[in-house]
């Protein structure tokens, strides 16, 4: 399996740096890509920081070229996607547990040998150099010996391994029940790029039109800012599954509609293009800026952006409809954020469900009688999806299941209760989709 291109050890067109002496006085060539990958993986598995936060903390990333940052990010994501398998491959060669930083170097080496196109000699040599740059000189011999042995065995090392199972923490695997294997298989791949096209615009050429209307490009095939129509706001990036909750709310022109957790605004934009009067509520100041910028690019100046906690905010008159895209564990987006698998804990889910119930109760109180709310989460966890639908009903919200006609374009996503459940293994031959749960209720 080779999901992403090889990171370039030294980008073309850059003058090679002179390097700095290692602890033995020899010169070590700079290699920002692998330094950044090291910082990210150490940040995730040792300090339990999210990938993006680890990248922000990376000293190597501060002075790196954008291209090296991107390559380091991609290499780190590949390690995190295949970490269980890589550790399994390493285990016969390690008589005792190496220090964490040494394991990080070994993981970077194995990912290049088994999951990327890096030539074996380069994967081994750059890992030994990385160990030296990181002050792990006493372990350079171990890194060299282990990776040479992995390289000698090649991809045969993967035969007989249950990679899908190894690459998912056991508590998550169990929580996904029968869906665990198809989900886990899909997590090994970089996700494609999906666009939602504004109703009056043309899609950029070359994409695949997906059920529901999203336009899809293969991972890494295009740069979104270079696509024709980007500057004019003809489309925005949104996974096909993420486009479904707003679509299923079916806001009508002139309706008063709130998007309670709005930033960065993909669903706000969908609601605004229906002609509804849209209130976009967002609690985080920095995310509000992003929301405003995204709406401005799309020319959606009529949206009322409100910086407030949606659990406290109340409209001046009852609403016709609400989209509650609640904050959640985001396990449905692990394809994009493989770090989340190794950072989240079961107790994080419980913490989220309390906030989800508060927002559901607030939604109920904002609606006019008969008004509707679509509750959605980008989570694969039943506690945040199916179990919250039961909680909503217990709060007096009346279930209003999605009909087979409403989901005729993706019938496999309709549950027996009439809710929406997507997961990364759905439409796997076409690149899959994020995991989402959505359910609709009415105020009595
Ligand atoms: C899942 S994201 C929403 C994604 C967004 N709906 C979209 O489609 O682009 C959740 C957002 O809700 C915001 N949020 C979380 N709790 C909130 C609250 N109590 N009130 C308002 N916004 C909240 C977070 O800051 C975050 O921006």
TrEMBL record:
Q: Which SUPFAM superfamilies match?
A: NusB-like, S-adenosyl-L-methionine-dependent methyltransferases
Where is the segment annotated Disordered? Answer: 1-32
Keywords tagged on the record: Methyltransferase, RNA-binding, S-adenosyl-L-methionine, Transferase
Q: Where is the composition biased (Basic and acidic residues)?
A: 14-25
The active site of this protein is located at: 378 (nucleophile)
The similarity comment for this entry is: Belongs to the class I-like SAM-binding methyltransferase superfamily. RsmB/NOP family.
What protein is this chain from?
rRNA methyltransferase RsmB
Q: Which organism is it from?
A: Komagataeibacter diospyri
């Amino acid at each position: 399996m080779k999901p992403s291109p090889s990171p370039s050890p030294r980008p073309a067109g850059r003058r090679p740096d002179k390097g700095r002496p290692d602890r033995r006085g020899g010169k070590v060539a700079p290699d920002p890509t692998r330094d950044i990958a090291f910082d990210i993986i150490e940040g995730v598995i040792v300090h339990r920081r999210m990938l993006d936060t680890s990248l922000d903390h990376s000293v190597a990333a501060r002075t790196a070229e954008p291209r090296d940052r991107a390559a380091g990010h991609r290499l780190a994501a590949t390690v995190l996607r295949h970490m269980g398998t890589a550790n399994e491959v390493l285990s016969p060669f390690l008589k005792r547990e190496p220090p964490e930083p040494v394991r990080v170097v070994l993981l970077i080496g194995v990912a290049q040998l088994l999951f990327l196109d890096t030539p074996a000699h380069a994967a081994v040599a750059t890992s030994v150099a990385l160990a030296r740059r990181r002050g792990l000189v006493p372990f350079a011999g171990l890194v060299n010996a282990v990776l040479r042995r992995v390289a000698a065995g090649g991809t045969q090392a993967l035969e007989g391994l249950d990679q899908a199972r190894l690459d998912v923490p056991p508590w998550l695997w169990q929580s996904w029940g029968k869906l665990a294997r198809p989900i886990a298989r899909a997590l090994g791949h970089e996700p494609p790029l999906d666009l939602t096209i504004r109703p009056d615009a043309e899609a950029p050429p070359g994409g695949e039109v997906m059920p529901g209307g999203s336009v899809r490009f293969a991972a890494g095939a295009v740069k979104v800012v270079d696509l024709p129509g980007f500057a004019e706001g003809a489309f925005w990036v949104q996974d096909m599954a993420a486009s479904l909750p707003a679509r299923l709310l079916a806001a009508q022109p002139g309706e008063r509609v709130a998007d309670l957790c709005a930033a960065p605004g993909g669903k706000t934009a969908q609601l605004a293009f229906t002609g509804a009067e849209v209130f976009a509520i967002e609690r985080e100041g920095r995310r509000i800026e992003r929301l405003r910028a995204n709406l401005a690019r799309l020319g959606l100046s009529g949206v009322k952006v409100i910086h407030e906690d949606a659990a406290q905010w109340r409209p001046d008159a009852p609403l016709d409809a609400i989209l509650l895209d609640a904050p959640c564990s985001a396990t449905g987006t692990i394809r994009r954020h493989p770090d989340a698998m190794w950072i989240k804990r079961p107790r994080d889910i419980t913490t989220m469900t309390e906030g989800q119930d508060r927002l559901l109760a607030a939604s109920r109180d904002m609606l006019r009688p008969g008004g509707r709310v679509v509750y959605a989460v980008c989570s694969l966890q039943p506690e945040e999806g199916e179990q919250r639908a039961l909680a909503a009903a217990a709060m007096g919200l009346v279930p209003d299941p999605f009909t087979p006609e409403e989901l005729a374009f993706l019938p496999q996503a309709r549950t027996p209760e009439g809710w929406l459940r997507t997961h990364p293994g759905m439409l796997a031959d076409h690149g899959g989709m994020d995991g989402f749960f959505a359910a609709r209720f009415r105020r009595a």
